[in-house]
Request: fold
Amino acid sequence: MKWHFLGGADTVTGSKHLLEFDDSRILFDCGMFQGRRKESNEINKTLGFDPAAIDAMVLSHAHIDHCGNIPVLVKNGYHKSIHATSATADLLPIMLRDSAHIQEADAAYLNQKTNRRGQPPVVPLYTLADAEASLKLIRPHDYKEPLPLPGGVVVTHVDAGHILGAALALVEIPCNGGDFLRIALVFDLGRRNLPLLHDPFQLQDIDILIAESTYGDRLHDNALNAREELREAIIRALGRGGKVLIPTFALGRAQEIVYHLVHLRDRGEIPSVPVYVDSPMAHAIAGVFEKNADYLDEESHALRSSAGSVVKPDWLTFTESVEESKSITSSKTPSIVIAASGMCEHGRILHHLKHGIEDEKNLILLVGYQAMNTLGRRIQNGEKKVRIFGDEFALKAEVQTLHSFSAHADRLELFRYVRDAKPKKVFLVHGEQDQRASFAQLLRDQLHLDVELPANGDKVDLSAFLPPPPAPSPSPPSSQS
Ligand SMILES: [Zn+2]
Reply:
């Protein structure tokens, strides 16, 4: 009985775990490692096992760092089922096709250069055909529906409260005549009070907890402040005749922002200016939210009944064609524009920034993490001049970062989850080393827990954590006593 930490252990991307039990092998997640192109490509090509020898795969959620390498798995011989919640199953076609498109476009771009140098062509990590083959293997199911898997292992998904359809997993491995070793997989853990989503479901009485620690050393602003911060920012920018430009990821954050806007407009708390979601992908994802409305929380249902839709209200314009997108960039009318990508590295947001960044009436509202060396981070840092499409622009627009937006539990929320799960053993994964080390120390100091920080590639023997066999029943008392 072995647990193999194949990826996303001491990194925050490339989540990949393998359970070996008797003759069965079950893969949990097959995420894409994201980093510098050359290194990422090598890591993503190397799975670390024979895909044909895997008996089943279980997927936590539709973020690319958890599902984005599935086409590599399938391309290399995996043809069994991929188990995911039905909302995740509906998001996967959008996510994997988009990812395949990026891989193909990237290879085509590189090949323009290599052709000129007479070098062998670059092969994409995977193609649209590989993504389509992967989608045929998806088996959707509901939260709390026990999945019987090979080897007698049972996996039950519960709500992670992270993004639509995201699941924490209870993995029960049979042992000691009728008993089970209970492993909880907590990647990724969401937050309480996030818009649209239910709060994370608390798993309890766990033998082994394998948990993410992305923000193990950080506290977020309260999620309940997000709407008010958004309202104040919008009022200020529109009040001076400016536009509000919101760079965001197409999955999750875009729908959260729209949800808050629906709430604010429904109560007349912001002006009725044009609102654009300039992202065909975000449009498609909004459709998945509509289809899976039963995944949404009670507050969303209440707002839905008064406003009609919480992700696709009729006053909102989704732009599909580049021409439509261009007509918004050239317009000076005060408006709210939501566009990908979240860190301003590519996508349509670049056109909006190019036309709007030099106007001091405009507001660039950052609602997500901005990694080092991205345009988003340079804007966040308030650099006086930034480059967009190779040209230099003066950063004159106002820049504001809202820290209340995050889909990941922070240090305190993670601590509470681990405490209430009452595990006997904890492995912290999915975090940079300093985040993991700091959180591990907190768990050791406050909860006296046995905590380990595995590295990618580590293999752990789970037999050491088996619950003790049941004690033999005492002999019945004799009639004389
Ligand atoms: Zn995630």
Summary: The longest strand covers residues 167-175.
